[in-house]
Amino acid sequence: MKRVDLIKEIAAEFELIANRLSETEVATVASVVELEPQHLAEIAKRAQKLTGPKNVKLKTVIDKSLLAGIIIRIIEEFGALFIKARICPSKGGDWFQL
Could you give phi then psi for residue 29, rounded to 5 degrees? Predict the structure, then answer.
């Protein structure tokens, strides 16, 4: 069992190094329900505008403690950025507001 834990740690460290080399930022998106692929694409696009890296990789988490909306957590090398967004259709076609 200790070997399995060790392999998980090695894989996590490998992912961190690979992301750093490819200038990829990992963002965790928490929501009450599973988000549609087009919504995740829009979140990645907006997160990329905020952080500036070439690539943004999303990890999704279902959080039943949320009442509505989403929380986006982006960890950069020197700090963290938390974004709370509301899901609401607007006249401009956006489905969420930061």
Answer: -115, 115
Q: Judging by DSSP bridges, how do beta strands 79-87 and 96-97 pair with one another? A: antiparallel
Q: How far apart are CA 48 and CA 45, in angstroms?
A: 5
Is pTM beyond 0.90? Reply is: no
> Collapsing DSSP states into helix, strand and coil, what is residue 67?
coil
How many CB atoms sit inside 10 A of residue 93's CB? 6
- The number of beta carbons lying within 10 Å of the beta carbon of residue 47 is 22
pLDDT 10s digits, 10-58: 998 998 899 888 888 888 888 888 988 988 998 888 888 877 767 888 9
Question: Strand 24-31 relative to strand 70-76: parallel, antiparallel, unpaired?
Answer: antiparallel
Return the structure tokens found at 58: 């999303």
Contacts of 50 (CB under 8 A, 6+ apart): 74, 81, 83
